[in-house]
Amino acid sequence: MTNNNASKYCFAIILVLAFQFQTPAQTILQIPVTFYDFHADGSNPDFEPGLSTCGTLNCLKNLDGLYVNEVQSTLDIQGKPISGSSPHFSQRVGKWFIPWQPGDLSIPIYSTDGTYLRDTITKTDTAYKNITIQDSLPFSLVSGTAGVYQFNNSSFFRLDGKGFGNEPSGISSPHNYSFTMQIHREFTYQAGLIFQIQGDDDIWIFVNGTMVIDLGGFHGPLSALVNLDNLQGLIVGQKYKFDLFYAERHVTGSDISITTNLFTPPNTKNLNGVFRKSSTIAEPNKIKYTSEYYNLRGQKLQAVELRKSNELVFERIVGPKGLICIKRILHNAE
Predict the structure, then answer these.
(1) What is the mean pLDDT of residues 210-228?
(2) Integer Rg of the chain from CA
(3) Which of 49, 150, 230, 305 is deepest in the core (most CB within 10 A)?
(4) C-alpha angle 159/87/173, rounded to 5°?
(5) What's the whole-number average pLDDT of the chain?
């Protein structure tokens, strides 16, 4: 639609609320992550288990595949995964996402199919020794969307030359294998939020402390999508925790791709107020502007759709010299 009303007041809103709200047009989001680098030399029975079980990297014939229920559907009190009902070379998953602590001489013994058999005592306590590395992943704004971001890397070796260095040795594609990664974020639930991921090996996603994606096991790239609108118990406007746990445990590929509108720019706070045209556009000065409307999935909405929309959408106001401002409004509010 086109109007002759001015938008000076829209500028004022941005100035007053700049500390609260950044527009979804930020092209790159740096999302903090934590890596834990483990040895890939056979000393850790959960990573490259062929080395510790039968002597070579690829001696386990039935290693690859999707294994669900490696971890429980809820997290422990520290917000970390708990070994589940069907561990697959993963009995000590509780040690994968925490800094190493000396003193534990026990390690699990597995059968060649990955079934946990028992614990044994070793002479050293370094089987699960790791190095913690803080990093961030650059998520790029998906073109044509109003807040959908993506990170895509089909050769995901962020720790090459770091931690314990490139292990295992003697392979055709040398990299630093055997690492884990976690992402912890807080988000404010609004209708239309999605999270899609593809990768290898283990991937577990938790929302509000409950598992919503279970892609455990040694496998090639597998994908899953969760629409938060389908989850029970989430209330619009309330804050919730998002937790991602990822493990690279076997040569030679490492792949990850994430697409989501769940991540927002740093220091962004969702506005609680409902904006109405009468309260945001004032002081007519004969400058023409155009309003366009988008939902959180980046889809442009038509006027007829606005009347039926219950979800949070963005109004993008454009003037003769380009973007004037972006507001969040609820179109079912009068």
Answers:
(1) 97
(2) 24
(3) 49
(4) 30
(5) 82
Contact between 221 and 299 under an 8 Å Cβ cutoff? The reply is: no
The tokens for 329 are 């409004």
Dmax over CA atoms of the chain, in Å, equals 82
The total number of residues shown for the chain amounts to 334
Pull the structure tokens for residue 265.
């720019």
Catalogue the long-range contacts made by 47-52 (C-beta closer than 8 Å, 24 or more residues apart).
47/177, 47/178, 47/249, 47/250, 48/168, 48/177, 48/178, 48/249, 48/250, 48/251, 49/89, 49/110, 49/114, 49/249, 51/168
Six-digit token string for 44: 């850790």
Query: Which tokens is 275 given?
Result: 């904006």
State pLDDT tens for residues 10-50: 433 333 333 333 444 589 999 999 999 999 999 999 999 99
Residue 238 CB: number of other CB atoms within 10 A? 12
d(CA 73, CA 205): 10
